[in-house]
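Chain X:
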Amino acid sequence: MSLRLDAPGPVTAVRRFGRPSRWVHRTTAALMGVCVVTAACLYVPQLAELVGRRELVVRLHEWAGLALPVPALAGLASRAFRTDLGFLNRFGPHDRVWLRAALRRDKRHSSRPAGKFNAGQKIYAAWIAGATLVMLGTGLVMWFTQLTPLVWRTSATFVHDWLALTIGIVLAGHIGMALGDPEARKGMRTGSVSRDWAERQHPLWRK
């Protein structure tokens, strides 16, 4: 089996993402961006003074956070999106090879075998999904203060704040990686990537 071409003949593009996967990524990124920006406005005094309207910022933060899982849940209606999730959730021997090469800072493509998603992308996806659920749970505890004891709210605030900082750092790394790979960004933007890039970066990817 081989990579699926957009059209027969000497075409150099391959289809990487369907519209549902791109829609889920974009809407999730937008909601996450709102959460990060509003959190910064709530916790950085200089930004809080610059923006003002704290009550509105709080409400934007709460509702954006509450809506974060919605795009992925809606995407489950798409078979293509469920297939992508299956690839992300499948960790094979080649992924361990990829991770060892990454830890050694070995950047040779031959030393980093990958299917449709490499091991780094799989770990990031799993971590950010888990972090989102924890943020949602702790956020709800902080939101509905009358339903939980003080010790729960205090613990939830501690976890929420420090995990938010960690998410910001991880997202910055994710964005930095994306900025360094224009072809990967093109794949998420248009759905297609060059055949050369696919064979070089994801040699085990088969459709």
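Chain Y:
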Amino acid sequence: MKKNVNTVSQTPPLGAGGLAIIDYGAGNVQSVLFALKRLGFEGIVTNNWNIIKSADKVIFPGVGEASSAMKMLQESGLDVLIPTLKQPVLGICLGMQLMCKQSEEGNTNGLGIFNVNVVKFSNEVKVPQMGWNTIYNLKSPLFEGIKENEFMYLVHSFYAPLSENTIATTNYRQEYSTALQRDNFFGVQFHPEKSGTFGAQILKNFLNV
């Protein structure tokens, strides 16, 4: 099979399938691509089932509104494909939320990968949460080399409550899941591609999974 990704670095190595970034019209793919390039990698942005299924790693970014984004996934059949993937998959921001069971945003049914429902922040806090906040209770190799209470960049109005899938926590008047993991699926509510050196380390850790 022809190699789909040009890896300009050998550390960490990727196989012939390379790195796929899912394109469904709701992802901030350029920021992700720039962050990967700074690490020495170039991924292929695609909605092609065969390329995604054969990739060594998959990134599922997302910005925008949940129900509209899910509709775009359904139109391309990616809502069926994504939960079946066997390689490491990283959902970012809305991508992570869509990997949950359900979201209050637009009363949207998610992909059901993570066993948690996404809810809106209360009126007691400023919405959206926008800016830097700390992550702690880190429980995954995804956070290798990341100290407790490092700052990550977040922009969101909805959140995933703490659950059995929680691997990192943030407090915004209340604690919530800032990262989730189930089997080969990872999700982060923050934007690692916009979170400086430590965000870059998390992306590198994912490529090493």
